[in-house]
Structures are given as structure tokens and as C-alpha cells.
Amino acid sequence: MEEVVGKIWDKWLTSQVTTDHVAAKVHFSELQTQLLIYYRAMGGDGAKSLEIAEKRDLNIRRSTMQKIAGSHKQFYLSWQDERSVRLPPFIALFAEKDLNQSLYFWLTALAAQLDKQSRSGLSYKDMTDWFNDNQQATRHLITQYAGLRRIYSQLAHEVLGLRNLELETLLAKEATKTKATEFFNRDFFSQKDGLTLAEKAIATVIKIPGAMDKYPHSHKDVLPVPLWLYPPLITQGAGADFEPADEKNKTQPKRKTGEVQEIDQRKKAQYVDDNRKTDGLLIFQAEALMTWTEQINLDRCQSDEDDDTDITEIAKDLDIISLSRHRKASAARIRFDLDLPAAAQDDLRLGEGILLPEWDYKQQRLVDDACVLQTMISDEVEPIALSSEYQKLSQDILALFAHLGLTPHRRKAQKSGDEIDLDAWLDDYALPVKDTSKQAFYIDTQRQNRDVNCLILADLSLSTEAYIDDKQRVIDVIRDSLMVFSEALTRLGDEFALYGFSSVRSQHVRYHILKNFDMPHSDHVRGRIARIEPGYYTRMGAAIRQSSQLLAERGGANKILLIITDGKPNDLDKYEGRYGIEDTRQAIVEAKLLGLVPYCVTIDKKGHDYLPYLFGHHGFSIVSNASELPRVLPKIYLHLTAMH
């Protein structure tokens, strides 16, 4: 009974304090693709993605009912940093759905304008002039774009109306001697209450952007300003150089087929110093037997069997996630290093490694010898023949090639050719009278002169261990694709090479040779392809630079660098995020300057967020159904080479 009454009370109390118009709600996921295109069209940074914002605390003045309900303490505020633009997961501020949708586009345009301002000198890490920066960006947009001026006028009118109504309600009890509806026009509150003065300033600059340049001091926060972007969350503390945990220790709960995955939200991080000189009981107290766990810093050893599937749900409920330099973090790094295979069990290493540069986007220059690429090859492989399943799939691909007239065509009974035609010789030998002028005993194999060199670079990172269905992992699909595609290229007659890569920070980029340009396609090559397994991380820039160098040394007019991956560049160190994106983009630019044609084939459904910035709008393909990659890849290749 208590539970039923509690639910009724909660429902009624929520209805009394809610300000959302549920019927007019617009979700970010419905507009994400359009907003991303719009953001870049407005001049936003091409390396950034658009993601949802998390709730942030605001210490605003609240009504008694709001205090009882515990509401209006956290709000979805829009903001951006060097990595992404963060917008609310939904907007239900206005009663009209079109206005809520227009607010998304206004915020996106404002983010693009603020981004352009930052490139001219303002850094988001030091963006403290929230009041003036938003005014400057707003004034520029409504001056330069008539359409945005019309949208802003509508939004500003509605926002001011809502703010006035809410402020009148909040101040009604305080304004005992004056009418609450006149609080903006009276000096009483501006002199007695700094918050009212701040609210008056916000209302003024919303109505006339640029009208004021000084933000009044207030002991409380003003009501959220939905038309503006807020400064990013700034992480401070002794753990500024905290290293992310080993990706292999992360566990993800399995999702049912068809289950919608929630968009990840970024959390505030608070670094704490957890180094203790002593652990355990200092003094034995009999009366505290039931509270030992409160006095002991208890470490639970994690085994491979541990699978805390609730950790994601727990993280969602936390406003602040505390990170510490606990000794368990060091143990995780040691464990990861021990996870590297022993030299006796690992692939054969060729040489001492190759020093390669990396692009530092903050310094806008290549840093020499920034990473070490280790070339490797499986030397002890069991040769395997092409299985019946692969043969059937290869025949389907070859039938497509034959239909396009690309497969070799054998002509018998020719006067010259590649091999002897025994049938034609026997027929001539059986004739009672020989005609020496009509002797044609050769087979001529005609090939189309395509003059194409292709290097296929496969992502063998840890993420390829993920399952795409109940039977297949991503790595299995990549293996099948390489197996079938290599057969097709052999029959097509194009020169090709196969490589795979993964990484463990900058000093250990693993570059696996499956087949180089000088190796014939054979059972040994198939054996190497069959042995590929998920590796570590995705330091894509180094692998692209090495592949570009190998491909550039080849002759021929057309050189294709085909990259197969399942996600964006990342690694344990600073390569995660913007640094990795920018380094990969620079590596692609370098490849194009060498006369190569880099092209990416990915199964990452979020590839539209970053691939246009890396490869250009026509430099990639996204395969929505990963299991179809073996069939789709040859078609993509044919379309790509047909243009050259």
C-alpha cells in the first residue's frame, strides 16, 4: 500500500513542477545526421562529432514545490570542447514542436560560430567569458543570415516569455510591497538582489545581443539560457595525467537482437588522491566488529570470471565519477603488458622496428620518430586450401567479374600464346594431309590491361572481437573478406598486398604481413589469413604511413590503398580522441600527395560522424550489414578501380 501511495504522490508532485511540453518533444537522435551536416556547412570543425549532453548542476532559485520534489537542480545544457558539440538528448521547452526543432538548429549554428571564434584565438579550455562570447556569436549570426535572424527572433520571444513567467512566480512571495510583474522596471530588486540584476542583464542581451558587456555578480545562478552554449566541463586535480584503464578489462553486457543502444553520455570526473601509507585495522575495537568494512580499504581481486554487467547502469546514475591513482590501476597496466604474447609464441618480428612521425595538431607539425612500427609475419603457418564455402562465394564474385568482361579469356587454336593446345595439335596430327599454313597449336590468355596496384590494410584491433550475431565476430567477417577478395584479385590479375595492424601505444605498432606484392597468392597466404586474431588498439596513422610508402614504391598508374576497419582511431595514450583523428587525417593527406587513392570501408554505423573529415565525402563506404562485407567489398573495389 505504501508503494502505491508513493507512486501516486510522486506522479502528482512531478506533474506540479514539470515545465516540459511532452507532446511537442523533439529527440536529438531524430535530427543528429541533419544537424551534423548543418554544423559543418556553417563552418564548424570537421573533426568534431555531435553528441548528447549530460545534466549539469545549477544553483538557481527554486519554488517550495520544486524543493519538495527535488527538481530543477540539474539541467541539460549545451556546450562544446575540442572533441565534440554536446546538445540536449531532447528538447520540450516550447509547446510547438517546430520551435523545439528550430532550437536544435540554432544551437548547432551557434556552436559552429563559436568554433570559428575559437580558431581565431579563443580556447575552449579558457572560455570564461560566457556572457560576451555568446552575445558576439549571436550578433554575428543574426547579422549575416536573414533566416537565422527570423528563427532567433521567434525563439527569443518565446524564451523571454517563459523566463518572465517563471521569475514572476518565484519572486511573487518576496515582492510583498511591489508587483512581481514589474520587477524588471523597479530599482528595489536590483539594489537588494544581485540575482534579479543578473536576470535583468540576461533578458536584455537576449533581446538585444551586445547591449551589455558586463555580467552582474550574483550569489545564485540565473535560470538556464537555452539559446546559449555553456563552457565545457573542466577536469582538475592531481590526476590530470591519469591513464585510461586497459580496454581488455572492460566488459560490455550482451544486448538482445533489435535492442536500441542508448547514446553514451559524458560524465564529470573528479580525481582523488587514494595513496595511503597504511591499509587495514589500526586499533582493535570489539564494539566495532560489525563496522570493519568501513575502516578497511578493501581491494577485491578481479578474475577473468568477474562480469559486472550492472556497471554501465551504475555509471548512468552517478553525477560525478571519481578517478584515483590506486595501486589497482598499476596492476591493470602490468596485467596488460603480460597479455602480450611471448616471443616464442608471437609472430616473427622483422628487424628492430621502423621509426615514423606523427602529426601534432596543437603544434601543427609532424613530430619525427614519434612512434615505432614493428613489421611482423606468421612464419609457422599451416598451408590451407580454399574451402568449399569460400569457393562458392568466390565463384559468385568471379561471375560478376566475367559479366563485366574483367576475367581472363582463353582462346584455343592460336598461332601464338601462353601454352600449347594439345587438342589442336592432335586434331592436326590426325589429318591425312597437313596444311602448314594453318597450323595453330597455342592457347592465348587475354587479360584486360588494368594497371592497378592495391594494398589492403585490415584493422585487427581488439574491437573486432565483438560479435555481430550469434555466430560471427567482426574479425571472422574480416577474415572471410580477405580470403575471398584475395582470390578475386588473383583471378582478376591485379597486383595486390595484404597487411593487418593493431597497436599498444606509440612504441608498439604491430604491422602484420599477410601477403606482400612479391609473394604469389598461395596456400601459405591463406594460412596466414586464417590465423588472424583480434589484437590491441587502432593507431591508424602509423599503419597508413607505412602502407603508403610501400604502395608508392610500386610502378603503375593506379594505386589503391583500401582500409578495412570497424571504428575510429584510438590507443591507450593521447591518441584517443582529437589527436588520433587529426594524425590519421594528416596521414591520408600525405598518401594523396604521393599519388595514392586512399579509401575506407567500415562497418561502424557512426562512421558518418568522422569519416568525411578523414577521407572526404567520396572516400569511404559504410557497410550497414557487417556479414555482407565479403560480398560487398569486391563490388566497392570494382567501382573504385573503374574510376581510374
List the helices and strands and how they pair.
Layout: H1 2-17, E1 26-27, H2 28-41, E2 49-52, E3 55-57, H3 64-69, E4 74-76, E5 79-80, E6 84-87, E7 90-91, H4 97-119, H5 130-144, H6 146-171, H7 187-192, H8 194-207, E8 268-272, H9 292-295, H10 311-317, E9 320-324, H11 327-339, E10 348-349, E11 354-360, E12 365-377, H12 388-403, E13 409-414, E14 419-420, H13 422-429, E15 442-446, E16 452-459, H14 474-492, E17 495-503, E18 509-515, H15 523-531, H16 540-552, E19 558-565, H17 578-593, E20 597-602, H18 611-615, E21 620-622, H19 629-642
Parallel strand pairs: 2-6, 8-9, 12-18, 16-17, 16-19, 19-20, 20-21
Antiparallel strand pairs: 1-7, 3-4, 5-6, 10-12, 11-12, 13-15, 14-15, 17-18
Helix pairs in contact: 2-4, 4-5, 4-6, 5-6, 12-14, 14-19, 16-17
